[in-house]
Amino acid sequence: MRKVIAGLAVFAASASFALVNAAPAAAAPSCPKGSVCVWDGTNFRGGRYSWSGNDSNWHNNYWNNGSGKVANDDSSWYNNGYAQTDYDHVRVYDYNSYSGRMTLCLHYGPGTEVSSNSGANNDGQSHRWGGEC
């Protein structure tokens, strides 16, 4: 009986240690609600730009830290829009006017941010909101 009680005490102590020392959940990137945001650095660092609607030409947009144009300088992305049928996914294209290759489809919802993507890195020139991609 003593061994069972000692075993339970060790288990309880290790369980409480795990709870106290659990890693905190990663915070969502800073992006206004209802917007799609892009950053010029991976992992949501550096300059940020946000939109609440479509944009057919990223060449006329500049990073909030003054580091240059957004077009062809995007390295991380976050869809912080609203759940809305046929309008809660964001398609990023590698040419103006929503043409060329779709480099990313950003699904709606927390946890769907993209901190880096080698196939889409520095390729965005336009984006459009729509339904499921």
Can you tell me about this structure?
- The chain is globular.
- It has one helix at 2-20; strands at 35-39, 48-51, 76-80, 89-95, 99-106, 126-130.
- Mean pLDDT is 84; it is low at 4-25.
- The chain has a 3-stranded antiparallel beta sheet, with no helix packed on it.
- With 133 residues, it is α+β, with helices and mostly antiparallel strands.
- It has a single domain (33-130), classed as Sandwich (Gamma-B Crystallin, domain 1), CATH 2.60.20.
CATH topology: Gamma-B Crystallin, domain 1
Sheet with the most strands: spatial strand order: 2-1-3
- Outline: globular
Order of helices and strands: HEEEEEE
Tally of helical runs: 1
The value of Rg in angstroms is 21 Å
Share of helix, binned: 10-25%
Largest sheet: 3 strands, antiparallel
Number of domains: 1
- How many β-strand stretches? 6
CATH architecture: Sandwich
Q: From the helix content, strand content and strand pairing, which structural class follows? A: alpha+beta
Name the beta content range.
25-35%
Mean pLDDT level: 84
- In CATH, the homologous superfamily goes by the name Crystallins
